[in-house]
Specification:
The complex is a heterodimer.
Chain A: H1 8-15, H2 26-38, H3 46-51, H4 53-71, E1 82-83, E2 95-96, H5 100-106, H6 111-144, H7 149-160, H8 167-177, H9 186-193, H10 210-235, H11 239-247, H12 252-263, H13 265-276, H14 285-290, H15 296-299, H16 302-312, H17 316-343
Antiparallel strand pairs in A: 1-2
Helix pairs in contact in A: 5-6, 5-17, 6-10, 7-10, 13-17, 16-17
Chain B: H1 17-22, H2 26-57, H3 61-64, H4 79-86, H5 88-120, H6 127-136, H7 144-153, H8 161-164, H9 171-182, H10 186-194, H11 199-210, H12 212-228, H13 231-236, H14 246-260, E1 271-273, E2 276-278, H15 280-316
Antiparallel strand pairs in B: 1-2
Helix pairs in contact in B: 2-15, 4-15, 5-9, 5-11, 5-12, 9-12, 9-15, 10-11, 12-15, 14-15
The chains are: A mainly alpha, B mainly alpha.
Chain lengths: ~350, ~325
Amino acid sequence: MTDAKVSTPVTATGLEPALEPASSSRAQKRKARKNAAKDPKRKITWDRVWAQRALLAMSVPLLMYQILFKYVPVYGWAIAFQHYKPGRGSIWNQRWVGLENFHNLFTGVNGERFRRVVVNTMGQSVLTLVVGTLGAIVLALLLNEVKNLPFKRILQNITYMPHFLSWVIVASLASVALSLPSSGGFINQGLMSLHLVDHPVLFLTQPNYFWGIVAGTSLWKELGWNTILYLAAITAIDPGLYEAAEVDGAGRYRKMFSITLPSIRPTIVVLLIINSGWILSTNFELPYFLGNGLVSDKSETIDVFVLRYGYQLGNYSLAVVAGIFKTIVAVILVGSANLAAKRLNQETLV
Amino acid sequence: MSSTTVAKPPARRASRGGTQRRKRTVEQIIFTTLNTIFLLALAALMIYPLLNTLAISLDDGNDAVRGGIGIWPRVFSLQNYNVVFNMTTIYQAFFMSVLKTVVVVTTNLFFTSMLAYALSRKEFIFRRSITLIFVLTMYFDAGLIPNYLLIKDLGMLNSFQAYWVPTIISAFNLIILRTYMKSIPDEIIESARIDGAGEFRMWWQIVMPLCKPTLAVVGLFVAVASWNSWLDTLLYNSGDPALSTLQYELQKLLASSMNAGMNSVAATGSAHSGGQVTTPIALRSAITMVAAVPILFVYPFLQKHFVSGLRIGSVKG
């Protein structure tokens, strides 16, 4: 191993003061980045590119690869403007129909159904997100109060468990739990033994329960898992803060609301942002598995519509229009959530 | 290549115990008791459905149809598992699921960590733009049918490649790994560089060993996602029974029982396999356990790693 030959420009810039100043101020950061762009050492020159050929070899093929599998499929969006029939072969042999499919889906024959589908998707997602976030924060606060560490670890292990089950299994367990007592429906059994209901409730046949069932089942699956990051954030809080508060006579609840919650606020914001981007994409499996003809007015989401009505019934063109709608809304939602977070001066994703 | 250890932040929890014990009041005892009861009830609610399924799967098929089984089988029998492992489809699907998971985890960890290393280097000029392109794929999805058409046009329908080739990079795991790698002190990298190590050596011999806890976490995420997925089988490989997976078989069973009757869970009729007989509800429970148990056996062993890995990533990120 020779040491003198190490490419000097790279090492030199690598040892420069860090590109990003540690300061959290947004304006300062932007200024620093602008200065960096003017700095001749930061300019992209062929010398620098050549010096970094190893890093490029590590990343560029994978970048191409990702572009092939994530961005290239966009050519399939052409189907949205066609009357697509799989039998006609490739997408270049199809009949072009302009915006007909868009009219059909948004205002025409399928307009009412699609609006219902969008409302269901957002309703189920928002309910799941709100219930899930609140539940996880409360559970994290309560777990944090458990001082017996082995007991705490066992509790965590048990509450993480459902996260590792597949949605297929979870849906299967939920359909049994919600069924009649004779088929193992322990929820009905419990309600009846508490005399809350006289007759077993056929949960999965009642449209009005469906969003709640989706949110409740997701809560069951992800509650424990979602506490991990909150618990980590709580552990990172300086214990000195609590000691100072105790000296000032703060009680348990005061400390919770004035120290713990404000301290984990950045975590809450970042997680909400990440999840808001998925607001039209989540909730695929549960409505697909648990939905049925009786509750389809409340169960059908965009993804279910795409899979059932589009892929399985061969209406490719409409399914692609619905998919385009979903993707565009998702990108807009994430973009604006990121902007909002920047204004709050919180961490962002990019 | 000298020091390859990263100092862990000291555990700072001890200082809170003393003052609290002295101040223990009636209010505190009540709170602790209620909190314990609540958390125990929650844990019971989490674990009951699975224990119930386990009990049904270990119960005699004809007895299970009568219902009313709690967390203990009434008429103990291994017949259901006997039937499950004598069904060629399930048997094959089990091994296909294992193979798929192993291949996906190996390729994904290799490529994602290599890319994460490149993107974690501060001097890398295209680091921001490349990261952005990957992060956008977390939100930008061309859609189910365009993806299907791509796989079809690449000639990967009904092939094992459709399981692992499209997924060798996951943007989410890339960010986790990159964030962790960024937190490795520059001195370690620089001293290796002065010793003459190239980028590939630095990635494989210096950075990778330091990333073990995070790699374990990411590997677990990837394994769970691969083991639990059924949609890839439905979309790409449902034409070839030899490529079927356990989750897909379970999903088909669930769909047929949902169709058979909303709440009867297809409790009538019986499943035959090689002269052995059981009932759908018992069979479904047994397959559920077979599909659930491998992952449930793995995660407690990785628990220590993934909690510490996630924590390091989130605190420093």
